[in-house]
Amino acid sequence: MVARLEASGDLRPGPVRETLLVLRREVLMPQSYVRRSADGEKPRRWDLLDWAVPQDREELQKVLYGGASVLVQRDGEPLLGRARGSRSGASITSMSTVMGVTASLLDELDLRPRQRVLDVGTGAGVTAAVACQVCGDQGVVALDRDRHLTQAAAARLADLGFRPEAVCGAGDEGCPARAPFDRIFVSYVVASVPPALVEQLAPGGRLLVHVTSVSPSTGHRTHTWCPGCWPASAADCSCCRGRASASA
User: Fold this and answer.
1) pLDDT at 5 over 90
2) Could you give the residue range(s) of every CATH 3.40.50.150 domain in the chain?
3) Contact, 124 vs 148, CB < 8 A?
4) What is the pTM of this model?
5) Sign of the CA dihedral 43, 189, 111, 172?
6) For 198-211, what is the mean pLDDT?
7) In angstroms, how far is CA 129 from the centroid of its own chain?
8) Class of domain 99-239
9) What's the whole-number mean pLDDT along residues 165-178?
10) pLDDT per residue as tens digits for the range 94-150
11) What is the b/e burial string over 204-226, where b = at least 16 CB atoms within 10 angstroms of the residue's CB?
12) What percentage of the chain carries pLDDT values higher than 70?
């Protein structure tokens, strides 16, 4: 997976690359859904694969290390203690981000040892695991609004030897009790930069977030805010210029 990310230009030499080389994704995501239904088929059919079951490992390894999104939660269910097997209906409510996107953004975040990091929308805990490895787990906070995801991320990060503070709460409120943070990473799209997150940045800190706006003239636009460009707009930042993608 790392070799493919390097070849595509999504990953550069550095601490993120070194961490991804040794990160055991099967520990963070020991189970994953795979869709078995055809396009348009209703209700959708899923199989929950489990790394603990030898017959599942070959297919699950391709899912975990192929670079695509990993489907980790269906219908808001608890992640811990699930039984493998087939499911029908409902929808996927949490998935890991495509690895090329995650790797590229983590590179932009410029993680360094002993930094304090807030991972907003931690999900399966991939970003939190990288932050723990690079920065040290004592300064990392993994925040998610879903208590089942928060519990599972804490347990599986512990299985990797990491013990960040896992917090269940609203992402736009951040974690003021542990502020300030040197780095804040938001894994999902927001309509505007949450003021609370800006307030929780340490002097010289960096916040990486996708800001999406919809207007009759521009359509749907997503901006990747460069670390450190706040409070300037993406249009004013030389690092961010030209990064917007648009669709009608």
Assistant:
1) no
2) 99-239
3) no
4) 0.86
5) negative
6) 90
7) 10
8) alpha beta
9) 97
10) 999 888 888 888 998 999 999 999 999 999 999 999 999 999 999 999 999 999 999
11) ebbbbbebeeeeeeeeeeebbbb
12) 85
Residue where the block lists tokens 């299985």: 159
13, 2 Cβ separation under 8 angstroms? no
- Cα 114 to Cα 162: distance, rounded to the nearest angstrom: 14
Distance, C-alpha 90 to centroid of its chain: 23
Identify which of 171, 172, 246 has the alpha carbon closest to the alpha carbon of residue 214. 246
> Which residue, 52, 39, 43, 40, is CA-closest to 75?
43
Q: How far apart are the first and last CA of the chain?
A: 33
85 has a pLDDT exceeding 70: yes
Q: Structure tokens of 15?
A: 């601490």
What is the Cα–Cα distance from 181 to 205, expressed in whole angstroms? 7
In a 10 Å sphere around its CB, with 0-12 CB exposed, 13-18 middle and 19+ buried, how is residue 92 labelled?
Answer: middle
Inter-residue long-range contacts of 174-181, CB under 8 Å, 24+ positions, other chains counted: 174/118, 174/120, 174/143, 174/199, 174/200, 175/118, 175/141, 175/143, 175/200, 176/200, 178/116, 178/118, 178/141, 179/118, 180/116, 180/205, 181/116, 181/117, 181/118, 181/141, 181/205
> In Å, what is the CA distance from 135 to each residue of 35, 102, 126, 155, 232?
36, 17, 14, 19, 27
Give the strand order in the sheet containing 45-50. 85-88, 45-50, 31-35, 71-74, 92-95
